[in-house]
Design a protein that fits this description.
Elements lengths: L1 H23 L8 E5 L3 E6 L23 E9 L3 E3 L2 E3 L2 E9 L3 E7 L7 H7 L3 E24 L2 E17 L1
Antiparallel strand pairs: 1-2, 2-3, 3-6, 4-5, 4-9, 6-7, 7-8, 8-9
């Protein structure tokens, strides 16, 4: 009986060490949650990486709704009323979607934040607050991680060799 108890104890200890070792080996997420902000706007999104892939036109198909990041929708919060690409938008939190094309993107604000992606967008597209078209700038240098940033009077999307700037200012 003592031998069985000792064997069970050793097996349990080995199992626990194996579980601990597996937990310690967890890799960081491939598309970590990140954010950016300025004095009146903040954005929260999952940041995918290029990892040698062809991004626009393949991973992110042209002409289709993209959640503008990975995992769930990218959400933008305005702490005051703003002028987004020349259109007035009320203070609040919005899901941000885009429809990339080779020479311009359609940028969409939807009143339902935290959507799971294009599938849920299709169910909520009647709740779009606005959509605007903005030109694509081609970059000389490749950007590995999808990045949303704020520059003076712009919200900027950058990934691979593509950049789109959306005019943004307080009302």
């Amino acid at each position: 009986m003592k031998r069985i108890a000792a064997l069970c104890t050793m097996l349990m200890a080995a199992f626990m060490m194996n579980v601990s070792a597996q937990e310690a080996k967890k890799e960081p997420p491939k598309s970590p949650l990140t954010s950016a902000k300025n004095s009146f706007a903040s954005v929260s999104y999952s940041q995918p990486s290029k990892r040698g892939r062809v991004i626009f036109g393949e991973l992110v198909p042209y002409g289709q709704v993209w959640r503008t990041g990975a995992n769930k929708s990218t959400d933008v919060t305005f702490s005051t009323d703003v002028i987004f690409a020349g259109k007035e938008v009320k203070k609040g939190t919005y899901a941000l979607f885009t429809i990339p094309e080779e020479n311009e993107w359609t940028v969409i604000l939807n009143s339902v934040p935290a959507q799971k992606g294009a599938f849920e967008y299709d169910q909520n597209k009647d709740k779009n607050v606005l959509d605007v078209k903005e030109p694509v700038a081609k970059l000389n240098k490749e950007v590995e991680k999808f990045t949303i940033s704020f520059e003076k009077d712009f919200m900027v999307f950058t990934w691979d060799k593509t950049q789109v700037k959306v005019p943004l200012k307080k009302k």
